Structures
1.
Amino acid sequence: QVQRAYNFNAGPSALPLPVLQKAQEELVDFRGSGMSVMELSHRSALYEEVHNEAIRLLKELYKIPEGYHVLFLQGGASLQFSMVPMNFLQAGKSAGYVMTGAWSEKAFAEAKLIGEVFEAASTKQENYKRIPQFDELNYDKDISYLHITSNNTIFGTQWSQFPDTGDVPLIADMSSDILCKPVDVEKFALIYAGAQKNLGPSGVTVVILRPDMLERAAKNLPTMLRYDIHVKNNSLYNTPPTFGIYMLGEVLKWVKDQGGVEGIEQRNREKAALIYDAIDASNDFYRGHAEKDSRSLMNITFTLQSDELEKKFLSEAKKAGFVGLNGHRSVGGCRASTYNAVPVEACQALRDFMIQFQKENS
Ligand code: PMP
């Protein structure tokens, strides 16, 4: 019986134990090849099987509409902050960004280096404690795209529904909530996500792209920054992060075993409720940062009544075996990231710890 930490890291974060064990088992001799996946040629039939299986599974599990492309790129979600405007921010047009947190700000700042952008809405004045209502979104019909951050890792808010943007391509950074619940992928022209929260290890970036977007993608870009090149080459233009893609495929098989994304969502709701209920029942001992209808299923952010008490909470939690509960360095407080692979038991243990700590300190 391996001793696993109660891992609430914000990313990289917990991976499913069965996936780690299978990777361990297959490490030195992958499917009788006498090599690990890392040692296979990315042009070999055996690797291509791994690669295409991962793409196929993501399409199946996330119910990605026919024709959409799935890409495995590098450079993290952060490179997508640049690639999106480089490819799709057309000359003479602008792009709208919905500002819901620190990562929206980063995406906006990168796009600003490329072309004209504007804030289509922002909740910064309210310290990003909520997602804007649809009627707060302000943009013209002729913009190049509208960009949103579906889950705000640092502030702990999440879009529960997505707007219909008609002919305006909707682009989403789903780094911290991809595959946490079923999503109507059809609403999106492009979705991107770093893998290191819900999908696998860091080093792989998933892009889901609506086919018509390729026609409008810029062609006068460095080759590696062109979506059309990656599509044409099935993400094998150059050497992809093969081991990460293998791990991602194994995580997807695990998701399938959990009852697919629907099963995962049910578990995620159960997990988040355990901790939010502890916050809500605490008589303000714990204070949730997000407004209730903007609460994230993935990152639960809260503070205690004083810095001193918060320090004590974090230090005792650490002693009790909880990892990663410190809030992001930019905002402080506490944050429990309950990504797909975090087991229900870890959330139960945290809930129990929170209740006990409150008893002893109030
Ligand atoms: N967007 C969001 C919502 C994130 O949470 C993160 C990473 N925490 C990023 C973008 C940046 O991702 P990466 O480190 O893969 O560039």
2.
Amino acid sequence: MWRKLENLRKIADTGIVLIIRSDDEEEALKVADAAIAGGIKVLEITMSVPGALEIIKTLVNKYSARDIVVGAGTILDGETARAAIMAGAELLVSPQLNPEMIKMANRYQAVTISGAFTATEMVETLEAGADLIKLFPAESVGPRYVKAMTAPLPQAPIVPTGGVTPQNVHEWLKAGCIAVGVGSYITKAARADGDYRKVTAAAEEFLQAVAAAR
Ligand code: 3PG
């Protein structure tokens, strides 16, 4: 099947896009490995991680046979979008509407999740050709905002990000979200003691919560 379609389906099926944001390259790689061991299939390395492009290349090579979607996050311009795609990223994520990123992604058929908050921004994001809408920071509005927004905009494929946990993920999915963006709940699970099995366990717990909510 067409790879982009498969990747979109993977996001919808697993329901989680893992956001790895760290100030340490080695930690980012360990988190990615541990989360993948816990069942995560789609992840983004934010461009703020030192050596982000190298991490993306490493993960793409390591997991090419395992059908893991490796993406790049916090893309702010077209140049960074191109560099990420050349490094092997199949998913590009931006916190804001960034038409250059969307154009570049569409040229190479990478999936895009583009930041939007208001109804105007969401419609502009869809018109710009983005695949999915990143509602950020989601915790500041809550699932009721998604429910309200998808009344006039039922076609908006919303991925809330910021403050989503296994305890509240069912509310976001029930409100009509196609998937959720998850960072600290999984990525920071080993911060206190360096035990990355806790990252694996947090990923498993999150995936179970998504499955139970559907
Ligand atoms: C990010 O961009 O790092 C996300 O907002 C993560 O949010 P979370 O850590 O609350 O899941």
